[in-house]
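Field notebook, page 212. I keep forgetting to write these up properly, so this time I am using the form the group agreed on. The chain and the ligand, BIS(adenosine)-5'-pentaphosphate, are recorded exactly as supplied. Prediction of the bound pose follows.
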Amino acid sequence: MNIVLLGPPGAGKGTQAEPVSARLGLRKLATGDVLRTALRDGTEQGKRAKSFMERGDLVPDAVILGILKEAMAEPASAAGVVLDGAVRTVPQADGLAAVMAELGRRVDAVLMFDVPDEELVQRLSSRTVCDVCQTPYSGRAPGTPCDRKDGGKLVRRADDEPEAIRRRLHVYREQTAPVLDWYRKNGARVVAIDAVGPKEDITERVLRELAS
Ligand code: AP5
């Protein structure tokens, strides 16, 4: 099964990608995590992505499609993937469909995480993430050790500053929202998920929808 998680910044895609992929035995692939790791490691890809990410703009489609093409061909993706934030423009949806078709696969479901704007801003303003595994936390101070005991400590993301949050919400509406229509027109199963409430309840909602 190959699942695309869509939704505005702060909607909980990263939070849910982890338990949903674990429960279904699928690989989790988050392009934001791949890019932040490249940035932290100072690779060429990271250097190219840095200014786009810090401003809250999208990284060019060609970079994302390169990441997806490589990752989808890896054995770890054979059983299926949960793609977190990996499809944000119509050309990316188109490109991913071509990559999948070459492998004899397709996107089985698109889950659209729905959260009101005020809550998104509140969530992002109080988020810290582990600088090693990138797990997101709410209301934990920077410098706190990660619960996973992986040696990481919690940091604020550069794009969680107010101006970058505003920019990301704008970019989502302009460039990512049309992807939903693209999937509907191309026959994919698109399911809206009410993503407000306890995190565990939302995981169950997602799993119920996928099972139905
Ligand atoms: P990315 O890292 O994917 O950021 P995003 O899409 O903006 O999403 P976020 O990670 O901010 O939010 P989320 O929905 O994962 O929420 P989370 O679970 O953390 O991308 C970053 C950048 O990389 C992009 O801006 C772009 O530059 C680039 N990029 C990445 N992919 C790209 C692509 N395909 N094309 C082009 N550029 C790309 O939750 C947020 C907070 O809320 C956390 O603190 C969490 O603990 C909390 N929370 C979660 N669920 C709940 C709940 N139910 N109740 C209360 N709090 C909750």
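OBSERVATIONS:
- The radius of gyration is 16 Å.
- The longest helix spans residues 162-185.
FOLLOW-UP: compare against the apo run.
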